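hiii so um. not sure if this is the right channel but i have a protein structure encoded as C-alpha cells and i wanna go backwards to a sequence. like what aa goes where. can anyone help
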C-alpha cells in the first residue's frame, strides 16, 4: 500500500567519538600500554580494544590509562558516531522536504557523555524521544587516538571502545510503535549485544507487522574476540537472512558474515541464502549489489563505481577535506532515504536498487568533505541540496559508463 507519511524507526550502535589528535604511537606513554600479542587487550595502531580489556591489560582503571597516553589532554573534538545513529540522522536530513518522520531508539547512561550526545543530536531533524537513559553504566563512547606522523607520515588511528549502557539496551525497550513503522532499521547491532543476539526474533516480528527491514552491519569485535577468525553470527540461522529486505555491509563484514574468503564467494553465499537484496562497499573500489526481485526489481550482480566528482575534488588542494569517518554510515542513510522516497509511489518489487545506490554513493562521498560522520545544517534541507549536486552528477557518470555491470 502506498503511503502519504513514511515512518522510519531504527536502533543500533550510537555513541560519542572523542578524538585526540596529538598522540605519538612511539612515545613511552603509548608503548607502556602497547599490545604484545593479538587479543591481549593492549593498544595497537589501527585496531580497536574494549575499555574493560585494556584495564585488565594495564592493571589500572581506564581513566588513568587515557590520562597517561594523552598526557592529561582534553579531546580535540566530540562527534556523534555509530552506524545506527549516524545513518538515521542522514536519512532524516535527506527527507527534510518529504512527509516523513525518522525515530531512533537507543540507550544512554547518566553522565556528561549523554548530555554531549543529546546536545548534538538535537541539532538534527532526527526524533530522539525514544533515545533514553537505561541505567547507571557509562554512555557508549569511542576514544580515537590519532598519530598523523605514524607510518612515515601516512598516519593511523587507534580505537578504545566502551559499550557501556548498550549492554543494558534490550528488545524490551522497542515499543509497539517501533514495529508499526513502515521501515525498521538495525544498524551496527554487533555493538549492542542484547539487540544483536535477538536480531532474528526482531526481524521476524518486523515482518509480521509488514515492515520493510534494513540491516547495516559493523565489524563484530565481540565475536571476533570470542572466536578469532571464525564466521560471525548475524542471525540465528541462514534461513533468517530472508527476513532482511536490504543488507548493507562492507567487504570485510561480508566475508566474515558469510565465512567466505573472496567477495565473489561471499556474493554467491548471500544469493544462495535467498536474501532479498544486499550491497557491499569496498572503500574507493566498486560497490557490489544484487536483488532477487522480491523487494527491489530483479538485479543481477552489479558493480558501480564511486563518485567521480568526489574523487576529483578530493584530489584537488583547492577543495577543503574532512575525513572518511562516517562515509559508510551516510551511504547507508542514503539508501534508507531512497527506499522511503520510493515507498511513496512504488510497490514492493518495483523499487529500483540502482536509484537507491546512486543516492547512497553520493551521500557517502559528500561525507568526505566534513569532519566526523554528521553534518550539522544551518537550515532545513541544506544537506539534501548539497547531496543532490553530487547525485545528479553521478547519474550522468554511470549513464555514460557502460562498464558498470563489470568489474
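sure thing!! here u go:
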Amino acid at each position: 500500500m502506498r503511503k502519504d507519511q513514511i515512518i522510519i524507526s531504527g536502533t543500533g550502535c550510537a555513541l560519542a567519538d572523542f578524538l585526540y589528535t596529538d598522540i605519538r604511537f612511539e612515545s613511552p606513554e603509548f608503548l607502556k600500554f602497547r599490545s604484545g600479542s593479538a587479543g591481549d587487550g593492549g593498544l595497537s595502531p589501527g585496531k580497536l580494544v574494549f575499555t574493560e580489556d585494556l584495564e585488565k591489560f594495564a592493571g589500572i582503571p581506564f581513566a588513568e590509562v587515557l590520562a597517561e597516553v594523552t598526557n592529561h589532554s582534553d579531546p580535540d573534538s566530540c562527534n556523534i558516531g555509530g552506524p545506527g545513529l549516524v545513518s538515521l540522522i542522514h536519512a532524516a536530513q535527506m527527507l527534510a522536504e518529504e512527509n516523513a518522520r525518522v525515530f531512533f531508539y537507543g540507550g544512554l547512561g547518566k553522565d556528561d557523555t549523554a548530555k554531549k550526545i543529546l546536545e548534538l543530536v538535537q541539532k538534527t531533524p532526527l526524533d530522539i524521544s525514544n533515545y533514553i537513559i537505561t541505567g547507571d553504566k557509562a554512555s557508549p563512547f569511542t576514544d580515537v587516538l590519532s598519530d598523523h606522523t605514524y607510518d612515515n607520515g601516512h598516519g593511523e588511528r587507534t580505537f578504545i571502545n566502551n559499550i557501556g549502557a548498550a549492554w543494558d539496551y534490550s528488545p524490551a525497550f522497542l515499543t509497539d510503535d517501533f514495529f508499526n513503522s513502515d521501515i525498521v532499521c538495525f544498524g551496527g547491532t554487533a555493538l549492542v549485544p542484547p539487540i544483536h543476539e535477538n536480531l532474528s526474533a526482531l526481524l521476524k516480528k518486523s515482518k509480521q507487522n509488514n515492515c520493510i527491514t534494513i540491516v547495516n552491519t559493523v565489524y563484530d569485535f565481540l565475536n571476533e574476540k570470542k572466536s578469532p577468525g571464525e564466521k560471525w553470527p548475524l542471525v540465528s540461522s541462514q534461513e533468517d537472512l530472508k527476513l532482511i529486505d536490504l543488507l548493507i555491509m562492507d567487504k570485510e563484514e561480508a566475508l566474515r558474515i558469510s565465512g567466505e574468503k573472496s567477495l565473489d564467494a561471499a556474493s554467491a553465499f548471500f544469493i544462495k541464502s535467498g536474501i532479498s537484496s544486499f550491497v557491499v562497499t569496498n572503500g574507493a573500489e566498486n560497490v557490489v549489489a544484487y536483488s532477487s526481485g522480491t523487494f527491489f526489481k530483479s538485479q543481477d550482480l552489479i558493480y558501480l563505481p564511486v563518485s567521480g566528482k568526489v574523487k576529483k575534488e578530493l584530489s584537488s588542494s583547492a577543495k577543503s577535506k574532512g575525513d572518511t569517518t562516517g562515509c559508510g554510515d551516510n551511504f547507508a542513510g542514503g539508501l534508507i532515504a531512497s527506499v522511503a522516497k520510493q515507498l511513496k509511489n512504488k510497490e514492493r518489487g518495483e523499487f529500483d536498487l540502482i536509484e537507491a545506490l546512486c543516492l547512497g554513493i553520493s551521500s557517502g562521498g559528500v561525507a568526505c568533505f566534513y569532519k566526523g560522520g554528521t553534518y550539522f545544517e544551518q537550515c532545513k534541507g541544506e544537506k539534501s541540496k548539497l547531496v543532490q549536486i553530487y547525485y545528479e552528477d553521478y547519474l550522468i557518470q554511470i549513464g555514460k559508463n557502460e562498464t558498470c555491470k563489470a568489474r
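oh and The first helix runs from residue 28 to 31.
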